[in-house]
Design brief:
Blueprint (H helix, E strand, L loop, with lengths): L2 E5 L2 E4 L4 E8 L3 E11 L5 E7 L5 E3 L7 E6 L4 E6 L8 E11 L2 E6 L3 E6 L1
Parallel strand pairs: 2-11
Antiparallel strand pairs: 1-3, 3-8, 4-5, 4-9, 5-6, 7-8, 9-10, 9-11
């Protein structure tokens, strides 16, 4: 079994910064893509940023130029550096990993971390 544990959320004023972390733990697994999603109150969960196993990154248009996704493969950890935060960035941020374990590929999710940006 693989677990994803997120950290780094909190309350910040508009224009501020936060850094989220997501660490995968377990044994005998490898990770393909790792991504961050967010879910605002009353809305669906949307993709924010993705980092593939080859290091390619993609971002939602709404965060381009402000957010940076990075990854430490040795630590099985993905980060999301969020700068110039806006109130509309508020939501629960979820880490997702596409994991290969025992010959199977599955999608794993973290428990979510709350980010609140005040105006």
């Amino acid at each position: 079994q693989v677990q994803l544990v997120e950290s780094g959320g909190g309350l910040v004023q508009a224009g501020g910064s936060l850094r989220l972390s997501c660490a995968a733990s377990g044994s005998g697994f490898s990770i393909n893509a790792m991504s961050w999603y967010r879910q605002a109150p009353g809305k669906q969960r949307d993709l924010v940023a993705v980092n593939t196993s080859g290091g390619t990154t993609n971002y939602a248009d709404s965060v381009k130029g402000r957010f940076t996704i990075s990854r430490d493969n040795a630590k099985n950890t993905v980060y999301l550096q969020m700068n110039s935060l806006k109130p509309e960035d508020t939501g629960v941020y979820y880490c997702q990993a596409i994991v290969v374990l025992g010959g199977w590929t599955d999608i794993y999710w973290g428990q979510g971390t709350q980010v609140t940006v005040s105006s």
